[in-house]
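Hello,

Following up on my earlier ticket. Below are the three sequence lines again, exactly as submitted.
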Amino acid sequence: MKLQRHGTIACLALTAALALSACGSDNEAPSTPGASGGASSAAADCATGTLNAFGSSAQKNAVDEWRKAYQQLCTGTTINYEPNGSGAGIQSFISKTADFAGSDSALKEEEQPQADARCGSGPAIHLPMVIGPVAVAYNLPGVDGLQLKPDTLAKIFNGSIKKWDDPAIKADNASATLPSTNIQTVHRSDESGTTDNFTKYLSTVSPANWTFGNAKAWKAPGGTGSKGSDGVATSVKGAEGTIGYMEWSYAENGGLSKAKIANGAGEFTELTAEAAGKTIAGAEVTGTGDDLKMKIDYATKAPGAYPIVLVTYEIVCSKGTPADKLALVKGFLNFAASAEGQGSLTELGYAPLPTEVQTKVQASIKNLA
Amino acid sequence: MADRHSRSADVSTGGPGVTSSHARPAGATASTGVLDGQPGGNAPVPPDFRTNGGGLGGGGALPRRKGFGAESMFRGLTLAAGTMVLVIIVAITVFLIAKAVPALRADDANFLTETDWFANESPPRFGIAALAYGTVISAVIALAVAVPIALGIALYLSHYAHQRIATALGFMIDLLAAVPSVVFGLWGLIVFVEPVRDFSVWLNKYFSWIPLFGGDGPFGRSLMLGGLVLAIMVLPIITSLSREVFMQTPTANEEAALALGSTKWEMIRTAVLPYGRPGVIASVMLGLGRALGETIALAMTLGFINEISPNIIKNGGNTIAANIANGFGEAGELGRGALIASGLVLFTITLIVNMIARAIIYRRREFTESAA
Amino acid sequence: MTTTALPAPGQAPKLHTKKLPTVAFFGVAVVALGLGAALSYGTGIGGWVLALVLGLVLYLVGVFIAVNAVEGRRSARNRTWSALIHSAFVLAVLPLISVVWTLVSKGADRLDGDFFGSSMNNIGARDPNGGAYHAIIGTLEQVGIAALITIPLGVLGAIYIVEYGRGRFTFLIRFFVDVMTGIPSIVAGLFVLAFWVLIVSPWFNDGAPAFSGFAAALALSVLMLPTIVRSTEEMLRLVPAPLREGSYALGVPKWKTILKIVIPTALPGIVTGIMLSIARAAGETAPVLLVAGGSAAINFNPFDAQQGSLSLFVFQQAGDASRFAPARAWTAALTLVALVLILTIAAKLLARRNRIPR
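Thanks for your patience. The regenerated structure is below:
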């Protein structure tokens, strides 16, 4: 038999595997000093160990940025964040697989007691960490700076406005020349916090036109579904006459035109980090104690505020985090909430936390035990 | 046919295999009755029984006492390993049912007729109707495209191409089977979607009066794209098994047809195709099983709308398997149960399809043996 | 001459029928293409693709008419079907070429040391580097463990079927091995999720369900087992009976005969089957997606914490927002295909070299 040849092949494979394992790198050293969110100022509280986290894909880029800066700052730490989705994050948190979870929405009523039970001595709390403005992007060549009132937006997405030159859209855009083509709305086909926030916005600001309530799954009839924000962005980019909602970064990456949305004061605002921050600054904290669950005022009248924003939370135990993980959880979240951590987010399509919210978050993190 | 030997090793790629028709008696003879009729317990077999029963071996020369412990241990080991397959099938059924039942109990809608999939709402409302529809339609599109082409290739390889060329080309088709589905998904998502979108727009422009091609877009990430990607993936399965059976056509039948003055096509139509029909049907069923269960390629190419619509070119469509892959991340505890329930349905369907296919192959195998 | 090919009984048989010259086919092809182009561009309803398709259809019709006129109806049918069968082949090769071409052209961008030497840990959306090292490790470990589980199980199972099995029960096993080859990979993933991740793994992990590379290996085992049993079974059956009989005649017990005579004889074939099933398992994404969890960092321990895999890496990067992600996805896909194809081709060459004569 030709066993010698098998032997040779096996040896080759083994050698290749060994060679491979010898040179693997987890990119622990800062590749280009200074480029990674300012790793130069060593302000973080370092702790060693491993953290496992699962959760929202909406905050993936933000968490990746923090992980990178924190892990490079503090050698000996490993922080895993798998953007499997908010649902998977909460499930993993409840079943103790994850040390903290990233979520686009607050825990549901039936989930809160389960999460509390997992923590044991203290309740599970929400820490707002990333503000992701939701862009309404459209593909309409020749029309720049489309302006939309909440009612118009709701009517477009519920299917009652069918043409781009509908009187309602014309009324919002006096100067634009609108084509008489069909409007094709694009929404998320998978369940997502983005859809949840967007529909929450619509049902708050235009309850008469948006009767579908809010949910992670898209419930209105018609339109096209696409998987993930990247799928929505691709669909909008790929066909004229389309309009869809997605996280800001996806609209930026895709080079799509973003509509100006009228806030509660009737002022059409462009989506900027600052404009989104203004809405968050006016948000009300509904959680008690260290829990910073927030209620966003979608009809905000603050001047210059962009109303459609998404707050994503880190869900952690206020008390009951195992002692060996506690220092690391605190250190990492503290870094994320710091000016440095938040400052690195703007370029990624997120808005930094307003200062007053940031202070509250930092206070809550201090109290973790 | 020298090529057939190597094909029997290839058989494992897609599973199909009818090659062992000749091999089977050989193995059967070898194992004839050496331990036949042994009660299975620890009782030693009387020597005379063994010599009589088997007609093999040197009778008393067998070192029976010493070897017996190892023999029955080894036999037990192989039996356990063989039983493992049945255990796994049963375990799959049991565990899927165990996880699916609580979710099905909580379902606010009829699981079989509901088209929406809101498994994480309260109250949860989900059903498999639209998913099953999308699964079936994408598989039908895949087969409608793949079967004629696959049969063409199979005939080309078995009866038209030169032996050497056929071997090389058959090898290439087998390589197509080896390409992972995620690669086809990526290719479908980024490359193949462009021509399909253009084609869809064209179809829509001139044939929108046919419900299949109606609607007003956007087009591209549709059931048609999913179905076409699937077609490429099931093509090698159907080709390889069909080619096998076409090549097994008794030479006498073919020569008889030719001797009667048939053209090549008439020979194929009268001798090859009827002979291969059961095998072709089985190969189509196997392809169907693969198409129904394919996950990642569809999870990457479809547009995901849960609706039952005759339109196959509009963005949309969803299948059971793709829904599991895409919905898994956002699923809560109940949502997971719901996805497992849909997986159970998929498992049942593919199991039935595969069992039918295998039953056909098995019957055919007997037929082949008696004919050959 | 009449159009029937068979001469009437009274006439002397003609040894040579009229044949359409080869040039005529080229002529028909050119005319068909021209007509197709004229139809497509002239009416303005399509571009060159439609011209080609119309051209092909017209060619088939043209060939049928021309041959029908000269050689007769039966010959015309024959030639048209030949043309159809040949074009089916071309049609099937096109996507293969397209896949290979895009893989090579797009995958070459990131085919560098960094890709094979680093992980996705600490790679943000704006970082152009990052690699698949962790994913390659994951794939190798998961497939390796799956192979360790399934090879003994599969080979022993096949030995039972071929050497010991009798009657209904064995038939049942054989039948379900065949049926099991068709289990969708996502179902295997769900099974391991329901069985291992949610029910068994909490025992080892302080009550928390744990995703792990091992769970992925289990799911891959479910997919590999039937293919290994099947191919081993085929190979064992090819071992000539006289070999076994000779061994029995020398007084060697059956189990020893199997281990020392039957298995070594069939070994190359068995190895081929195993390699093919490994190649198939390496490309599976769905089960890994459900039970391995995925990880951006290097994790050498398949029993603890999440792991990535090469196919999962392709899936994740394909849906990532970063503009550097598609290049990573293509290179990973190229790597994966290279790995799978090398295994497949090696297995087939092995099979070809070590054929057991019947």
